[in-house]
Amino acid sequence: MGEATKVVIVNASPKGEYSLTLQYARYLVTREPNIDWSIIHVGEQLTDMEYDKAWFDGSLALLEQCKAVIWATPVYTMLVPWQLIRFFDLVRQAGRNSVFKDKYATSVMSCFHYFDNLAEQWLYGTCEDLGMHFMEGFSVDNIDLLKAEFRSSMRFFMQEFHQATLNRTVMVRRSNVLKDVSSPVFKPTLGEASAAKKRDIRTVLLTDEQNSDSNLSAMIKVFLAAYPNEVEVVDINDFPYEGACQGCLRCELVGPCDRKDGFQDFYQDLVNTCDVLVHAMNIEGRYLKPIWKLFLDRTFSNGHRTSMMGKHTCYLVAGPLGQLSNVREFLEGKDRVGKENSMGVISDECPDSAHLQALIEQLAVRLDRACRAKYQKGVNFLGVGGMKIFRDLIYGMRGVVRDDHRFYKKRKLYDFPQKNLKNQLFNLFMGVATTFKFVRIGAYQNMKPLYILEHKRLVDSDRL
To answer: Which one, of 12, 136, 115, 105, lies nearest residue 327 by Cα?
Structure first.
């Protein structure tokens, strides 16, 4: 037996040693022989805005010396926590990206499988951009580790990962290399100010933009000029954040967020009083600017309640959105699960300024019309699948997350099929009837007209 393989577990959970995800990672390294492992508590150390520089330097030293990295991270708001994004950013700012190069990497992600695919996709791409050799990891639930067969698979996986590290096994790159191209400069033609703006629809525009000469700034100006209502512009950089979400669940169990910076009241006042929420966002790396992740993670102070349900939104995005399907899926998933009624996502990649200006102007007018009509979009797989995960999660924890439970109950989101008495009686009857072959043949022969009977009756009538 040769020298032990040095492995670093990067724990992105702000809960530190009490992290559920960390227990999975610790199981991996403690069940594999000849492993010398250590932990970097990134989530805990970088939760507050101030951090220990000596700790950071020591973390880089550990990464420099190791052969492999296991990213242990929960999934917050469809991605890794802001703390891990911040860690990558701090390493880049220090000019130390080389500490990751040629290391083997994998991940353990804990969540209830709510858009964990986007979190893994981002981590995969970020690590591959840094020259790491990434092996597909585990996305785990809260009780998986308690199952003997799951632990057996984890031990096999760790053996494979260890051998890949020792043998320098070639890994398939899963992410596309990002093209280093800038969007065309957007030069709109702004005319005279339109008629006086209406005030009956409260509209808020959230943005991270601080550069008045940027494409996003120009997009915002076009939108504000074309939109027929007054708009309150909020720069999310300006909020005095005490720190990131700590994952403590105080908001679920007690009510008030443990942070004392007032974000919970600020956000709840924002979403409870606005009718329309416009997002103007810059892309950075493989996601939005990190300030958006800090902002979005802190919105968990509202629990699992879909706070924008029934409201209307849109997204103005500057950056290579066309190269980042995960960012577009995040925006669409956020819209569909929350029933936000997004009227569109427009990026600045359009090469024709006149065409881009027309798109934004049309979006602004349509957003107003949709809000006034109380238009409700349909849902797709992202919305239905995401909401079913939340539905089952909240119902299973209803004795603990009482505010969430009341929210879901009041809005009839507990749409379990076993609670549909009419459907249950129908299936009971058909279950008996279809034991007879002549009934099955009759059902087959009449399936098409019977399937659309009620719908056709409505369409052919004069009912609205």
So the answer is: 115
State the Cα torsion 97-100-105-110 to the nearest 10°: -40
Largest CA distance in the chain: 82
Q: What percent of the chain has pLDDT over 90?
A: 76
Concatenating the DSSP letter of every residue in 328-387 gives HHHHHHHHHHHT--EEEEEETT-S-HHHHHHHHHHHHHHHHHHHHTT------HHHHHHH
For residue 198, the number of C-alpha atoms closer than 13 Å in the C-beta half-sphere is: 12
* Type of residue at 127: C
What pLDDT is stored for residue 88 in this prediction? Answer: 98
How many residues make up the chain in this entry?
464
- Per-state percent for the chain, helix, strand, coil, to nearest 5: 50, 15, 35
Q: 302 pLDDT exceeds 80?
A: no
For residues 162 and 190, the model is more confident at: 162
What pLDDT is stored for residue 402 in this prediction?
A: 86
Tell me the pLDDT of the chain averaged across its residues. Answer: 93
pLDDT at residue 232 above 80?
yes
The CB-side HSE value for 361 (13 A sphere, CA atoms) comes to 14
Please give the C-alpha separations between residue 430 and each of 125, 224, 353, 417, 443, in angstroms, as whole numbers: 50, 58, 60, 16, 10
* Rounded Cα gap, residues 165 and 36, in angstroms: 13
Chain Cα centroid distance, residue 227: 28
Strands 138-140 and 276-284: unpaired
Of 50-64, 151-165, 250-264, the least confident: 250-264
Question: Which helix H or strand E contains 279, and what residues bound it?
Answer: strand 276-284
* DSSP letter string, 180-199: --PPPPP-----S--SPPEE
The answer on pLDDT for 194 being more than 80 is no
CA distances from 401 to 304, 345, 387, 445 (A): 9, 33, 16, 49
pTM: 0.91
Q: 190: which residues sit within 8 A by CB, 6+ positions away?
A: 221, 222, 225
Place of tokens 């087959």: 444
C-alpha gyration radius of the chain: 25
CB 388 within 8 A of CB 382: no
